[in-house]
Amino acid sequence: MKMIVKLQPRVFLIIIQTFLVTVTAQINLVLNGTAAQETTYIDGAGIAYNANLAIEGPANNNWGDGCSSTADNQSKTWWGFFLPKLVYISRVNIYLRNDVPARMNDFRLYLANGSIYSQSELCYRDRLKQSYYNLNQSIDCDNSPTKNVYFFNRNGMNTFIELCYIEIYELILTFLSKNRF
Ligand SMILES: *[C@@H]1O[C@H](CO)[C@@H](O)[C@H](O)[C@H]1NC(C)=O
Ligand SMILES: *[C@@H]1O[C@H](CO)[C@@H](O)[C@H](O)[C@H]1NC(C)=O
Ligand SMILES: *[C@@H]1O[C@H](CO)[C@@H](O)[C@H](O)[C@H]1NC(C)=O
Ligand SMILES: *[C@@H]1O[C@H](CO)[C@@H](O)[C@H](O)[C@H]1NC(C)=O
Questions:
Q1: Contact 81, 168 (CB under 8 A)
Q2: pLDDT band at 151 (very low <50, low <70, confident <90, very high)
Q3: Cis peptide before 58 (omega within 30 of 0)
Q4: Which of 72, 93, 152, 167 is the most core-located residue (most Cβ within 10 A)?
C-alpha cells in the first residue's frame, strides 16, 4: 500500500487588530426642514407670528426680534418641524421669550413619524416651571430615528407654543476602522 503524503501549504497566520474610531458630530438641521403650527397669533396691527420665525432666528429671547406664536384661546396647541428623511435627533435647544416665559411651562417635546397624535414618542416634558426659570434650554433626546419634531402644550384654557429660536441637532456617528498588522 502506497502512502501518499500531501504537503500542506504553509499557513500564514496573520493577526489583524482592528480599531474602531468613533467620530461624533452634531449638526443643526433647522434649515433642512419646514415648520408649521396648529394656529398662528395675529396681533392688533395684523402682524402674524408664523411658525417659521422659530427657525429663522436670531437666537435670543426678544419677542421684538421675531418669535413664533400660536393663537390666543387654545386649550391645546402644537408647533412642528418636518424633515424630508429619518434622522437621529440627539439634542434640541430652545430660546424662549423673556416677557411671558411661563406660558411654555409644562410643554412636551415629541419626536414623531406621523402626526403628534400618532407615531410619536415623548423625548421630554417640562415640569417644575423650567420654562419660567430657564429661557434657554438644551434638551437631549435618546429616541429612535424620526422625521418630525413637535412642541405641544395643553392646559384646558389658554395655552401657547412660543419659540424665539430653536436648534435641532442630528447626531452623526462615523466609524473609521483602522487595521494594524
Ligand atoms: C441638510 O442640508 C445639508 C445642506 O443642504 C445637507 O448636506 C444634509 O445632507 C442635509 N441633512 C439632512 C438630514 O437632510
Ligand atoms: C440665551 O442665549 C442667547 C444667545 O446666546 C443669549 O443672547 C441670551 O442672553 C441667553 N438668555 C439667557 C437668559 O441666558
Ligand atoms: C378668548 O376667549 C374669551 C372668552 O371666550 C373672549 O372674550 C375673547 O374675545 C377671546 N379672544 C380671542 C382673541 O379670540
Ligand atoms: C420612525 O420610523 C423609524 C423607521 O421605521 C422607526 O425606527 C422609529 O421607531 C419610528 N419612530 C416613531 C416615533 O414612531
A1: yes
A2: very high
A3: yes
A4: 152
